Amino acid sequence: MHLYKETNRFQCSSHAGRPCIVIEQMRIDQRGNISPDPTKIDYLTEDGDVVSRLDEGLFLVLISQEELLLTH
Predict the structure, then answer these.
(1) Is pLDDT larger for residue 34 or for residue 28?
(2) Global pTM value
(3) Is the distance from CB of 18 to CB of 8 less than 8 angstroms?
(4) Domain map (residue ranges) of the chain
């Protein structure tokens, strides 16, 4: 099992206007050191849905294919 550290939260909304928080997490080692490898970054919603970051302002909820736009 991997260990993770929350590194950022993004306020987003769907095209329908539904607000959502996307959480950025980075894998850490047993000592708590963050991996410098960008492929070790994971995104998920507060509800636990896995999210992919498409670009600087757009996320995609993988299970529903719903796009989430960054609202700052």
Answers:
(1) 28
(2) 0.85
(3) no
(4) 3-70
